[in-house]
Amino acid sequence: MLFACISRPELLKNLEGVDGVELRLDLFPILDLKQIKQILDQYSCILTLRRASQSEGEREKKIIELLQLNPPFFDLEWDMRETFLIDVIAKYSKTKFILSYHNFEQTPDDLDGIYRAMVRFPTFGYKIAAMSLSTNDALRMLLLSKKHPNLSTICMGEKGEFARVLGPVFGNQIDYGAVNNQEKVAPGQLCLHDLLTIYRYRSLEKKTALYGLIGDPVDKSQGHIYHNDLFRDKKTNALYVKMGLCPEEISTFFPLAREIGFRGLSVTMPLKEAIVSHIDKPDRNVLGCKASNTLLLKEGCVFGTNTDGVGALDAIEKRGSVDGKKVVIIGAGGASRAIAFEAKKRGAEVWIVNRTKEKGRILAEDLECKFGFPSFYDILACCTPSNLEIDQKWILEGALVMDITYAPKETPFLLAAKAKGCEIIYGEEMFINQAKLQTKFWF
Ligand code: ATR
After folding, report:
1. DSSP states of 210-235
2. Helix, strand or coil for residue 365?
3. d(CA 110, CA 119)
């Protein structure tokens, strides 16, 4: 069930696609029982009165007044006075109680222990809301939801955002959404529009196949829009989410990802090289360039490919063959490796320049490229993640210039190339090419 979080009565309009509303009465400017009664007549409500400035005694009194309105659902914090909890749960039997645990600091290790302590109170449902300090924290929460049908796990914080989409796949009893991006009542909460349209919340179910992006940062990536739109258009019961993951977290991530059941993953910076040692079956592209941007998890095995090189070179070769041409690549990360490998394969002479010279030299040596900036070249490809301001003198008039960054579309690098009259290739074109190849690999 999906509930809209309401922090003031004016937000109760145009609520489509939800099963009900959660009235966060602790955030309401005034607590007017008459008004609440009217709202209860119109909407299926969860009433929630968190700790605020009032004493616990006053809060208990208010909760009893609210329960006398016979709300369909009531959220009670599990660490309230035990006898109070036992009394109200027994007395107001028409109301479905949700017993909730909150941890705004972290996701505790012993989640099972917390759940066991909560189920001592016989209620309709239980909710564990905890701050995800990592994607792995959020994955542990989802696995707990999967085990207990009467439990909802709510991941707080930026790292837990993706998990808020996955409630229906892991059997969350209740999920929550903000009415819009300005009205979020919890860190990491998604707005209803994104849940219902981008992520197709209503069509998600336990059988939905899971795909996702791992890397750091992932916020600018448009992969979730591209892949979820494609799943919708092709009527594929699948979902794609973005997960922030840094290199130190990869080893813990894989066992969890297997247990969760991810079928395929896109890999972005800075993981494209570090991920290779976790691939059981790397294909020729991965073996050749020692970097991967696409994983398939199947039959207990991790298969890896790299679609960056083909994606970029297909975009470049739409303008003419690279055979015999001089290609300069700025950067020495995973994307540079894949592009250099593919350009060499197609007959180009490849030069590498990089901020950290040693890393650039290693790449050049590995892939039999040249290191440094030649006095003349045909094609210049920028493979750095930032909106790099490049010295104008490096951009040659008449060259074909590509930036692999696609958000923003017009990078300072491409603007400088345009100003010099160069033909340019937007990063978007490579992004779409490589994403199409990822889909092919997964399916
Ligand atoms: P990806 O896997 O997408 O290629 P990456 O592995 O993080 O991403 O690699 C990014 C490349 O951009 C690196 O070569 C990096 O240079 P260093 O090797 O010196 O770290 C380069 N890069 C990142 N920010 C940069 C900046 N501000 N100026 C110049 N180069 C930069």
Report:
1. EEEEEES--TT--HHHHHHHHHHHTT
2. helix
3. 15
Q: How many CB atoms lie within 10 A of CB 224?
A: 22
Q: Between vectors from CA 387 to CA 215 and to CA 222, what angle results, nearest 5°? A: 45
Per the CB < 8 A criterion, the answer to whether 383 and 333 are in contact is yes
Known catalytic membership, residue 224: no
Write the pLDDT tens digit of every residue in 290-327: 999 999 999 999 999 999 999 999 999 999 999 999 99
Residues 378-397, mean pLDDT to the nearest whole number: 86
> The whole model's pTM is what?
0.95
Query: What distance in Å separates the CA atoms of residue 399 and residue 417, rounded to the nearest whole number?
Result: 9
User: What sign does the dihedral 365-367-370-374 (CA atoms) show?
Assistant: negative
127 is catalytic: yes
Please tell me the residue having the least CA distance from ligand 1 atom 12: 384
- Closest residue (by CA) to atom 9 of ligand 1? 333
For 334-357, the pLDDT digits (tens) are 999 999 999 999 999 999 999 999
Residue nearest (by alpha carbon) to ligand 1 atom 6: 333
Counting atoms of ligand 1 from 1, which one is nearest the CA of 384? Answer: 12
Burial environment of residue 323 by CB neighbours within 10 A (0 to 12, 13 to 18, 19 or more): exposed
In the structure encoding, which two tokens stand for residue 175, read together? 């999920």
